[in-house]
Amino acid sequence: MKSHAKKWQQRVWGYSASTIYYLLAIVLAVFSLGPVLILLFNSLKSDSELGSNPIGLPLQPLLSNYVNAWNQGNLGVTLLNSIIITTGTIIGIWIIAGLAAYALAHMDLPGGNAVLLYLVICFAIPFQLFLVPLYFLWSSLNLTDNLLGLIIIYWAINSPLAIMLLRSFLISIPRDFSEAARIDGANELQVALHVVMPLSLPGFLTVGLVAGFAAWNEFIYAITFIQNNSLLPVSTSFLSFQQSFHRYWGLTDAAGVIVMLPVIVLFLFLQRRFIEGLAAGGLK
């Protein structure tokens, strides 16, 4: 009888624990998706309806908000500029962080610990401190109002974190692979490109995802170093929906939905590739 009662208690406890886990998962899902749904609802409301119904379903959906936001915010131009900036940032970060992380993880680099300490300090210092001197430097180099100049800044801002993240992934790859390649006569660049980096594809995709999101959402350097309206990224388009002391919240929310869509597509694409790369790395 005691054994049956104990088994019954364990079964009841198992069901209770599962119920608690599901409830927590539901709460977290609502917490994560709730703001997105509210943003979607508000993008279909007029400003007057937003004031009276800020979180509910739109009573009279206005699809014209998306058309007006697209035209008034010049989103066709700013989205293209942000795609160029984000793509250039990701490619540059892959090159910089890949080579630096390989040197720190798979080479006996003199002063490697000092380099890591330097990266930690660079990551901890707020990048806004360099805004004024960097602007004067970029002006003297004719890199203002230049997408390449902004991309170079994003390389510098995102490289410390990217290098540390990628190094932590490369350390998990045994050195036996690189040592075997060196014995076969491969130089360091061949070892990095043909042996180590193909096995670290999930790490590169993670770093690219982090750097891409940072470049897509960055505002301060973008509005400071780009004055030409035809070169502004999409993060600056929200300034177009404010006039004096009034903001058009319906247009702002509609533009927010439009700006979110490429980010969601990028995340889903990299997430799928991340899983494929992890499986391929395990097989190799």
From TrEMBL:
Residues 79-270 form the ABC transmembrane type-1 domain. It is a multi-pass membrane protein. The chain crosses the membrane at residues 20-41, 83-104, 116-138, 150-170, 191-216, 248-270. Keywords: Cell membrane, Membrane, Transmembrane, Transmembrane helix, Transport. Pfam families: BPD_transp_1. The keyword Chloroplast does not apply. It is found in: Cell membrane. It comes from the Bacteria. Coiled coil: none annotated. Belongs to the binding-protein-dependent transport system permease family. This is Sugar ABC transporter permease. The gene is yurM.
